[in-house]
Amino acid sequence: MSSNTIANLISHQINKEAHGPVSLRLSSKEISPTPAAQRLVDQLSQLYVQRMGKGFGSFETDEESFPIQAMIRRHLNDASVDFYTLSCQMMQHLQTRLEQEPLASGGYVLIARVKADGSDYLLFTILSEVMGTKLNEDLDIADSLYLDTANLKVAGKIDLQAWQNGTERYISFLRGRGDVAHYFKSFLGCNDVVVALKETQKLVQGLSQFAEEQQLPATERDQLFERAHQYLDELGNASCPVTRAQVAEQAWPDAPQQLQNVLDNQAVEISDGFVPDRRAIKPLRTFKTKAPHWKLEFDRSSLRSGAVHYNPENDTLVLSNIPEEMRKELLAETKS
C-alpha cells in the first residue's frame, strides 16, 4: 500500500519549441486518484528522492516578482481559490518564466498535493512524451506514446508544513543544467543561497549516520572518515565545489551507492555545489569532548594506536606518551 495520499492532482500542457512562442493547454478539471494516477505519483515521488543535484531554499521575499508564495497562501486561506484555480494561476506564471528562456521546451506539467509520513507537500514535474511500442489486442506491434518519467529533469517540491512552521528551508528542486534550473527556480521563487559551513556540517553528520547505520567496526569507520576528510580538505583548499556522489565515491569506494543513499536522504537535505568549509570537517579526524572540569581533544586514530586508552569497566581514560613539556607542567601543578 502506498504511503503517498493524493489530496489533489492535475496536469496541464505547455506547447513550446526552442526559440519559439509559449502557449498553454489547461485541463478543465482535476485528475481523480485512480490506481494509475497513484502509481504515477508514487513513481515520480521516488524518482525525485533518488535524483542527485538538488538545490534547497526558501521563498524569495519579493512576492510581486516571485508570486508563487502569495498564490499558495491565498489557496490555503481563501476557500474561493481552490486547487484547480491555484494550478491555473501557477501555469500563467510558468508561461511568463518560459518566455524568458529561449532554449526551454514544453511538456506536461503535473502538479500534485501529496500527504505522506506526516508531511504535506506540493510536487511539480514537467514531463515529455516519447514513442514506445506495445502489443495490441491482436498481438500485433503498435506504437504507443507514454510519459518519459525515467528522464525526469525538471521537478520541484514545496513542503507546505515546513513553510508554515517557519523552517529555514522548505523548497527543493532539481538543479539540472543551465537555463533549465534557472527558469524553474525562478518560477518557484526559491532563494537557494547555500551556506557552506552549514552544508559541510550536515555532510559530516550524514557520514556519521552512515557509519552508525552500517554498524562499522572502529577501524573501518576511521578509514571512512579519514578518506572523506582528505578529499573534502583538498576541495576546500582548492575552493572546488563538492557533490554527494563524489563524496560517496571517494569515502566509500567499494560500495559508493550505499553511502550516497544516506547522503541523498531528503531528511538530511544536503545541497550539491558548495565548497567544503575546512573548519567543519575537523570532527572527521578529531574527537572532541568536555566535562564540567576538563576538555579533551585528540585524533580518532589515537584510540587505535594506544596513545589514548579508554577502559569502559572503570570509566577511565589513559593518555600515553605525554610530551616532556606537559609532564613538567603537570608535575608543577601537582606539587603546588
Account of the protein in words:
Its main location: cytoplasm. This is Nucleoid-associated protein. There is one protein chain. This protein is α+β, with helices and mostly antiparallel strands. The protein folds into 3 domains: 5-191, no CATH class; 196-283, no CATH class; 286-335, no CATH class. Helix content is 38%, strand content 25%. The protein is built from 11 helices and 14 strands. It has an 8-stranded antiparallel sheet, sandwiched between helices. Helix 6 (196-213) packs across helix 9. The radius of gyration is 26 Å and the shape is elongated. The relative contact order is 0.11.
> How many helix segments?
11
Number of strands: 14
Task: Report the sheet-strand fraction.
Answer: 25-35%
Q: Extract low-pLDDT stretches.
A: none
**Alpha-carbon Rg, integer:** 26 Å
**Approximate shape:** elongated
Give a brief outline of the structure:
This protein is an alpha+beta fold and 336 residues long. The protein has helices at residues 35-50, 68-77, 83-99, 160-164, 179-188, 196-213, 218-238, 244-251, 256-263, 302-305, 324-335, and strands at residues 5-15, 23-25, 54-59, 107-116, 119-127, 129-135, 141-147, 154-159, 171-174, 190-191, 286-291, 294-299, 308-311, 316-319. The strands form 4 sheets. Strands 2-1-4-5-8-9-3-10 form an 8-stranded antiparallel β-sheet, sandwiched between helices. It has a two-stranded antiparallel sheet with strand order 6-7.
